[in-house]
Design brief:
It is a single chain. Helix content is about 35%, strand content about 25%. The chain has ten helices and 14 strands. The protein starts with a strand and ends with a helix. The strands form three sheets. The chain has a six-stranded mixed β-sheet with strand order 8-7-6-9-11-10. It is globular and about 55 Å long.
Amino acid sequence: MEHIFITDLDGTLLNSKGFLSDESEQLLREIVETSPHQLGFATARGLTSAVNVIQQVPWNFPVILNNGAVIYDWQAQRILKIQGMETVAVQAVLKRGEAQGISPFIFTLNESFEEGIFYQRNPSKGLTYFMDKRPNDPRFIEVDHLAEQQKTRDTQNLVLMFIEEYETLVPLKLYIQEYFGAELQCLLMQDQYIPNQFVLEISSAKATKEHAIVFLQEQYGIQGERLHLFGDNLNDQGMLSIQANTYAVGNAHPVILDIVSHKIPTNDQDGVARTIKLLVNQVL
């Protein structure tokens, strides 16, 4: 019987430099090409960003993008589901951020599946660092005022991302939890690549990795014993609480290490690819 393997990317499948190692790529390609099992991934990245680091793998199961806001059929190159944010909620968060003197990236998607990352003039140090790591990326669009831009563009708002110091983001997170607890999801995490900066990601409460995986389970009739999930950070916590076989790489956040069924080698030791290969060869 075929099994489904879904892995997080950054900090889990990708190494500490944010790349897919040659060994992991080779192992995953072999699994897809020589076994009946299926591979997918669940990431906070959008499609363009994900393609830049994992396009060498012939993923044969739908993938989860933007932390669950988008479910995408990698092989057919079509969107299966989008879960955006309500405009009223976006405007409220922008207004609150403006009162604190901060503004986010807004990750968007239009009807032609064109991605945009809108930001306001004079971005913060964290946002600037994020863009500098992605030179000449056409998704970045500077505007004079984010709130006004959002009123006029016909796009799906997927994720708001603030990158600031921890103390700056906590009041905003608390505000959102108090006023939009049932409507919006807030994830506050230390950035894996930007020194001394934290990321606050805000999305629809239904745009989570776990919601996306449950949707795929229903669509494809996948039982928990056939499902294998891999993660490392707090945005994987809900996903790794699903009834399934769950795995954390050795470099994972302590909370994640505590909730999974299995602990495997780190991302720099090709833990995910080696574990899947081992399962395919010896267990399944």
